[in-house]
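Support reply, case 0932

Customer input (verbatim):
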Amino acid sequence: MPTRVHEFAWPDRVVVGTLGIPGARTFYLQVRAGKQIVSIALEKQQSAVLADKIDEILDQLITVDGNPFSVPTGTPLELVDNDPLEAVHEQFRTGAMSLGWDPTTAQVVIEAYPITDDDADAEDDESFDDDEPNVPEMLLVRMPVGTARAFAKRTREVVGAGRPTCPLCGYPMDAEGHTCTVPEV
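Our regenerated output:
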């Protein structure tokens, strides 16, 4: 069965955002081109690693003699996107992801795949609609270097906007309280 590819070669918008309150947020990678919008759920850690790895790729590209891909060192102000997510209709929950660089178009490339059956077995059992065929799908997003830099910055800010971290044990603190588990020395 062929894979359904949600492909965005030059997206109008690509962001990570959340729905819910800190401690119970769901992270989404949302991409829009014209009227086509795809939202996929991510784990907080996946979001953080994605931002870090994008910045690593861009920082390595800056070191190429003459910066031939015009990689910005910071986030271009005109590309800052602090708007909330648009209408979210979760396409799938992300399992594996890959990140790459396409020198022919000077774009960072993200590929995201749904959680596989093996991954789902480790999760809580959910009921799936048996009427819908299980078509394999993936998200393929290409971002120019400036957009990628802005994407990474926003993603780090969204990840950092969660629950505060306990200065003693390093675990997140809930609004209802926190039982600190400071290791004994």
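We compared this against your earlier run and they match. Two observations from our side: Confidence is low (pLDDT under 50) at residues 125-131. Residues 88 and 94 are 15 Å apart (CA to CA). Please reopen the case if you see a mismatch on your end.
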